[in-house]
Write a structure and sequence with these properties.
The complex is a heterotrimer of chains A (376), B (657) and C (239). Chain A is built from ten helices and 14 strands. Chain A is an alpha+beta fold. Chain B folds into two domains: 41-531, Cytochrome C Oxidase, Chain A; 582-628, no CATH class. The chains are: A alpha+beta (376), B mainly alpha (657), C mainly alpha (239). The complex binds heme-A (HEA) (2 copies), dinuclear copper ion (CUA) and copper (II) ion (CU). One heme-A sits between chains B (156, 272, 275-276, 318-319, 337, 340-341, 344-345, 348, 377, 380-381, 383-384, 386-387, 392, 395-396, 401, 404-405, 408-409, 412-413) and A (59, 62, 66, 106, 109-110).
């Protein structure tokens, strides 16, 4: 076997690779990204971030010392050109004391990580007393592929947008009806799963008012990637105001679904909106409630016009995108139930028809799109 | 392969027993029949390797499609559903059809040689394992061709997404039954290896003289027999839920989806050590050879391997930190998980100790081994981060986990398996692989791998969830994803060159001598490739690194050889029954997949359990005939030149009839 | 390291690796022990599933109201006794007493069949009279899967022992006794006739291995009987 000495090549290649990585890391480290866990904005996320950094320091230290000794050994004891190929190094078999020493050192380093870990486990589970007094409670339910938020103290529902006061602890009761989902708001707290038949708990707190992005983090079927949500931490006064508006009805309760909003604020021709109301009554009301106090199979749309996103956080709430969603829900979110309708346990029989079976015209979709903006 | 053998194959020895199977036993050991009926551990090992490499490429192509889709934000190269099917199949394929069988290939081929055995304890059962593995891969991938396509449930298939209601398609049934057959393959293999290692060592080869790779084979086999039952039962329960209306994971009847997670990970975590311990065994063989030093701290490395295996059963819930476990359980599982860093660290320290003061030669296997240590260490460190539940709360189900497990699986298992392939290729094929091309492969794979997976740490920490087929540009993940894809393709090119190089070397490579690397263990004392009977003589072992001692050691530690008796060497007979039995199992599993599915060309008929029953009957017939046939056997008479210098056998008082 | 494991440096000890073993334990026995370790995990998983679920079932009636503990207790006792017979047949096999071995094997099979009939009767009764089915509740699901898996183990054991019984019959029995030509005998002919007369003294080991399996299946039943049946009576007994 020819043995060419390629150690310098090895070293150079490895260096180049590492350099490239650092370069990439530097230019793509988007610390303040929408969902970055490296940019914590609340106590739970902050604690988790701190422990992460600690583990990062400890392991980097070990990597440098152990990996460094490895590099040194490779360099020092490599076979060089001109070395006697028949040289036999001393056949040492081990060094028990050294080995035990390293074991103990490793154990010590683990203790450094273990102690704050324990604190973090408790913190995520249990709201500290100081925040308990003015905590707000929200029931979160995950569905394929959207979120229902219920404010039990006030008794109303909303969807896909979690609004809460900054500076106060929010207690989240997490549930699911169909499959497992996971509630994750990286800047405020690590995730907790929503599991059918079980209730889980998580609490969050935003130090300052802000706008956050959240995401379903457990694979939950075709459109898992599109199961996002937004979270808005409001200053105390705006929060009070928001609570009030949310509890208001937005449509006539005579079954006509006409918006209660003053006509001059409709922003679209009157007949378009009224037509939209009619379409909504026929095609949409079976799944969507516009009564803030009622939850049906689909997202509650009572105040949809004032929300910032459509299709569970995937789109901004803009006319064209909303139109696209209602026109072609299947193209926006493959497999979604608004299009397919709801199915029975066997996975085949339709128990609630979806838009697939309604065959709405472009005009009707425009009308209902405009109509939705009057629900504020 | 055996063209140079000058023995009288199948010459009827005096007291040859009559071979009276239900069918005439197959005697031809070449061609298709020879392959389908083989019981030779070496041919079976090669069968495993070829199958595993095929699936590695298949899983790799699936991965490349995944990466291509993620290269740019909001791409529409493939649909969401196709993407979900791809990562499900990619994960399942890589773990069950690529890495596990590739390890099994080494168990089969190398382990018996390392212990000086003529074959494994149950050669026909070994063949059954091979066929079950291949047919399991077939079932799993058949799903692509049926309505609904491949499963889209993720490789750990969390209930209740796998319930009929949420996954009505047959893909999930293919997945269940495919894994079930693969489980049989792993289990029969493991029973066999345990028996072989414990019982069939050459004289003088005590447990504490076993080569490290053989030790890791033993420990891995124990992990398999203790871990697989959990998933087998879980799969049976899931199958009942889907086909017979039970409620194991269905909330409506009182079932708990979380039970699936416990059962899956009680299997799943030991499984990841099933994937890494053989790799560590390979590394522990290669480092001493190319440092020209014995393994540093051999007893401690063996012991830590066992401790890793043992602790592996006590940490499964670290995959479930976000499922709302109680504080006590979470803490306990977290701390137990951290403990695993210690035995793993021991191995790493001892590997470095092995090289310390040695004379290091950078051959291709050595480069892969050294690369392994660094990359595996990085993967281990991210594992330690995961083991802290508060940290894991942010990382679970993000690309950080994807980065973690690809570092341990590729930087760990795959690198070590490649090291092993480069190292043992001359032994298996009798040909040499070019070292320069090998190094190019290594650099391409090393750089491509890091480029592909290092950015995923950043992606994960900045919030990119895994198993999402697309992402929005606003998130700031574009660049990392782009480079990651570029890296994946470089890695792919490296693997492609490896495959080409191997095929080329097989036909055109230079002839390999017995011991091309100046190695230390017993397999290097026999021909490259070894004869059907492995060793013409019975080796009597007097030292741990026997072949090294033979070359450089003192007289007292030299190997003794004992010549075969006048009956020659006893070899097991070939058989059709393992293949037939596995086909029976295959039919039964397919029948289960088709259960309740419409019968083609009929109006309303659906399949009942007819096919399953037919398959089970075929299985039973296969097993009964197998038992009646008996192991059989014939004798070979190697050329006396092959055991020149051996002491004559102490004939009849110890021989048999 | 000294070679403190079972192997000695005696070069003659393992001359024929296919025939003699390093530990002195036969390969088949060792493999069976490994299989049983694995089977422990199988039953462990099933039993824990049942224990986790037994309290969450929304069944209408308490299990104690439809369990027939006397019957199940009796069949458990029979199964235990079959282990005794099994041990006797293994001992006869090692002594080369083929007729004795066959007699005890038949006894074991007979007891095994009694146990199985008990189970069939019991399942029938639970389904018909108590409405407990696989899909009536999760209690039904786990109950039938667990006890059913055990039943399948017993049935396979019966089949296995029957094969050895057939093997141990004298050669001329093959067509002689089964020649009645009655249709009912056909399957027996096809399955067992090729085996008749094949038993040799070295097969005593195989009977012993089958015995290991049989004892294991019996012992597991004790655990299942406790975990599935007896625990339900704890509240009645005041625990
Ligand atoms: C070969 C496979 C392999 C190996 C060896 C490991 C090794 C480890 N893994 Fe990994 N793991 C996977 C494969 C593997 N893992 C896979 C496939 C998944 C994801 C499954 C999925 O979700 O799809 C996963 C997921 C996973 C999780 C769950 C993450 C999540 O989903 O949120 C966790 C959590 O604790 C974890 C931890 C660990 C730990 C602590 C180790 C340890 O064994 C590592 C120990 C090694 C070292 C630490 C390095 C060397 C040590 C030293 C140099 C000594 C000094 C060090 C210290 C003192 C820290 N792994
Ligand atoms: C041992 C196991 C193993 C191995 C080797 C790999 C190898 C690779 N994996 Fe794998 N991966 C898993 C196990 C493994 N993976 C698991 C368990 C999951 C989780 C699945 C789940 O979530 O359910 C996963 C998930 C996973 C994801 C996340 C998907 C998601 O969550 O959305 C990604 C994304 O980049 C990925 C990429 C890759 C790549 C690029 C490779 C590369 O290393 C592949 C390299 C190989 C080749 C490229 C093939 C060889 C070359 C050719 C065939 C020639 C053609 C090529 C060219 C012309 C370039 N993997
Ligand atoms: Cu819901 Cu993913
Ligand atoms: Cu794990």
């Amino acid at each position: 076997m020819r043995l060419r000495n390629r150690t310098p090549f090895l070293a150079a290649a490895a260096m180049a690779a590492v350099g490239l990585l650092l370069l990439l890391a530097g230019c793509s480290l988007n610390i303040e990204g929408q969902q970055s866990a490296l940019d914590p904005k609340g106590p739970v996320a902050k604690n988790q971030y701190d422990i992460f950094m600690l583990t990062l320091y400890v392991t980097t230290f070990i990597f440098i010392t152990v990996g460094g000794s490895l590099a040194w050994v490779l360099w020092k004891f490599r076979q060089r050109k001109g070395d006697d190929p028949d040289f036999i190094p001393p056949q040492s078999h081990g060094h028990p004391l050294l080995e035990m020493g390293l074991v103990i050192a490793s154990a010590g380093l683990l203790v450094i990580i273990a102690i704050p870990t324990f604190g973090g486990i408790i913190l995520k589970k249990i709201v500290p007393d100081e925040f308990l007094g003015d905590a707000v409670e929200v029931n979160v339910t995950g569905f394929q592929w959207w979120w229902a938020f219920e404010y039990p103290e006030q008794g109303f529902y909303t969807a896909n947008e979690l609004v809460f006061p900054a500076g106060r602890a929010i207690k989240l009761n997490l549930r699911a009806d169909d499959v497992i989902h996971s509630f994750w708001l990286p800047k405020l707290a690590g995730k907790v799963d929503l599991i059918p038949g079980q209730e889980n708990f998580l609490w969050i707190k935003a130090d300052e008012p802000g706008y956050f992005w959240g995401q379903c983090a457990e694979f939950c079927g075709d459109s898992h990637a599109y199961m996002l949500f937004r979270a808005i931490a409001l200053p105390e006064d705006e929060w009070k105001e928001w609570l009030e508006t949310q509890q208001r009805e937005t449509v006539e309760d005579d079954g006509s679904f006409e918006p209660l909003l003053a006509r001059e604020e409709w922003g679209y021709p009157e007949d378009k909106i009224l037509k939209g109301a009619e379409v909504f009554r026929q095609a949409c009301a079976g799944c969507h409630s516009v009564n803030p106090r009622m939850q049906t199979n689909g997202p509650n749309l009572a105040h949809f016009g004032s929300r910032s996103s459509v299709a569970a956080g995937w789109y901004e709430n803009e006319y064209d995108l909303l139109y696209k969603w209602i026109r072609e829900p299947e193209r926006v979110k493959p497999g979604n139930f608004m299009y397919r309708g709801f199915l029975d346990r066997d996975g085949r029989t339709v128990i609630m028809p979806g838009l697939k079976d309604y065959d709405l015209s472009d005009e009707e979709v425009h009308a209902v799109t405009a109509y939705l903006y009057t629900l504020r | 392969m055996s063209s140079t053998v000058e023995t009288e194959h199948h010459a009827p020895a005096p007291a040859e027993p009559v071979r009276d199977g239900i069918w005439r036993r197959p005697l031809k050991n070449t061609g298709l029949v020879g392959f389908l009926t083989t019981v030779d551990h070496k041919k079976i090992g090669i069968g495993y390797a070829l199958g595993a490499l095929f699936f590695l490429l298949l899983g790799g192509i699936e991965a490349l499609i995944i990466r291509a889709q993620l290269m740019y934000p909001e791409q529409e190269l493939i649909s969401a559903r196709t993407y979900n099917q791809l990562f499900t199949m990619h994960g399942t394929t890589m773990i069950f059809l690529a890495v596990m069988p590739l390890s099994a290939a080494f168990f089969n081929y190398i382990m018996p040689l390392q212990i000086g055995a003529r074959d494994v304890a149950f050669p026909r059962m070994n063949a059954l394992g091979l066929w079950c593995f291949l047919l399991g891969g077939v079932i799993l991938n058949l799903s692509w061709f049926f309505p609904g396509g491949a499963p889209a449930i993720g490789w750990f298939a969390y209930a209740p997404l796998t319930d009929r209601q949420y996954s009505p398609e047959m893909g999930t049934d293919f997945w269940i039954m495919g894994l079930q057959i693969l489980g049989i393959a792993s289990l029969v293999g493991a029973f066999n290896f345990i028996t072989t290692i414990v019982n069939m060592r050459a004289p003088g080869l005590s447990m504490m003289r076993l080569p490290l790779f053989t030790w890791m084979t033993l420990i891995t086999s124990f992990l398999i027999i203790l871990a697989f039952p959990a998933i087998t039962i879980a799969l049976v329960e899931l199958m009942f839920d889907r086909h017979f209306g039970t409620y194991f994971f269905n909330v409506e009847g009182g079932g708990k989806p979380i039970l699936w997670q416990h059962l899956f990970w009680i299997f799943g975590h030991p499984e990841v050590y099933i994937l890494i311990l053989p790799a560590m065994g390979i590394i522990s063989e290669i480092l001493p050879v190319f440092s020209r030093k014995p393994l540093f701290g051999y007893p401690l490395i063996v012991f830590s391997g066992a401790v890793i295996g043992f602790l592996g059963f006590a940490v499964w819930s670290h995959h479930m930190f976000t499922t709302g476990l109680g504080v006590v359980a979470t803490t306990a599982f977290a701390f137990l998980t951290m403990l695993i860093a210690i035995p793993t660290g021991v191995k790493i320290f001892n590997w470095i100790g092995t090289m310390w003061g040695g004379r290091i030669r950078f051959t291709t296997p050595m480069l892969f081994s050294v690369g392994f240590i660094w990359m595996f260490m990085m993967g281990g460190f991210t594992g330690i981060m995961h083991s802290s539940p508060p940290v894991d709360a942010q990382q679970q189900d993000t690309y950080f986990v994807v980065a973690h497990f690809h570092y341990v699986l590729i930087g760990g298992s795959i690198f070590a398996l490649f090291a092993g392939m480069y190292y043992w290729f001359p032994k298996v094929s009798g040909r040499l692989m070019d070292d320069f091309v090998g190094k190019i492969v290594f650099y391409l794979m090393f750089i491509g791998f890091n480029l592909a997976f290092f950015p995923m740490h950043i992606l994960g920490m900045t919030g990119m969830p895994r198993r999402t087929h697309t992402y929005k540009s606003e998130m700031g993940w574009d660049q990392s994803n782009f480079w990651s894809t570029v890296g994946a393709f470089i890695l792919g090119i490296g693997i492609l060159i490896f495959v080409i190089q191997m095929v080329y070397a097989f036909y055109k490579g230079g002839k390999a001598p017995k011991d091309p690397w100046d190695s230390r263990t017993l397999e290097w004392d026999t021909d490259s490739p070894p004869k059907e009977y492995n060793f013409a003589y019975t080796p009597v072992i007097h030292a741990r690194d026997q072949v090294w001692e033979d070359k450089y050691g003192v007289e007292a530690k030299r190997m003794e050889k004992i010549a075969p008796g006048k009956h020659g060497i006893h070899m097991p007979d070939q058989s059709w029954w393992p293949l037939i039995t596995s086909i029976g199992i295959f039919i039964a599993c397919l029948g289960m997949v088709f259960h309740k599915q419409p019968v083609p060309l009929t109006a309303e008929a659906v399949f009942g359990l007819e096919i399953v029953i037919a398959g089970l009957v075929a299985t039973f017939i296969g097993m009964a005939a197998w038992a009646l046939e008996g192991p059989g056997g014939f004798h070979l008479h190697p050329d006396p030149a092959e055991y020149a210098g051996a002491t004559p056998a102490p004939e009849d008082e110890h021989g048999h009839h | 390291m000294s070679s403190h494991a079972a192997t000695t440096d005696d070069p003659h000890a393992a001359l024929e690796p296919l025939k003699k073993t390093s530990t002195g334990i036969e390969n088949k026995k060792l493999a069976m022990w490994a299989f049983l370790a694995s089977d422990c995990m199988f039953f462990g998983t099933l039993i824990s599933t049942h224990l986790i679920y037994r309290k969450v079932y929304p069944t209408v009636v308490e299990p104690t109201e439809f369990f027939d503990i006397e019957l199940t207790g009796f069949s458990s006792f029979i199964l235990l006794m079959s282990s005794l017979l099994m041990a006797l047949s293994v001992s006869a096999a090692h002594k080369g007493n083929i007729a004795g071995m066959r007699r005890f094997l038949l006894g074991t099979i007979f007891f095994g069949l009694i146990f199985l009939s008990g189970q069939v009767y019991e399942f029938n009764h639970f389904v018909k009279d108590a409405g407990l089915t696989l899909s009536s509740s999760v209690f039904g699901s786990t109950f039938y899967l667990l006890t059913g898996t055990h039943g399948v183990h017993v049935a396979l054991g019966v089949l296995w022992l029957s094969c050895w019984t057939a093997c141990s019959l004298p050669k001329d029995w093959a067509w002689y006794t089964l020649r009645g030509g009655r249709f009912l005998w056909l399957p027996f002919r096809v399955i067992f006739a090729p085996m008749v007369g094949r038993y040799k003294h070295e097969n005593a080991l195989d009977v012993e291995v089958a015995g290991l399996y049989w004892h294991f299946v019996d012992i597991v039943w004790i655990v299942i009987f406790t975990a599935v049946y007896l625990v339900e009576y704890l509240p009645i007994l005041g625990f």
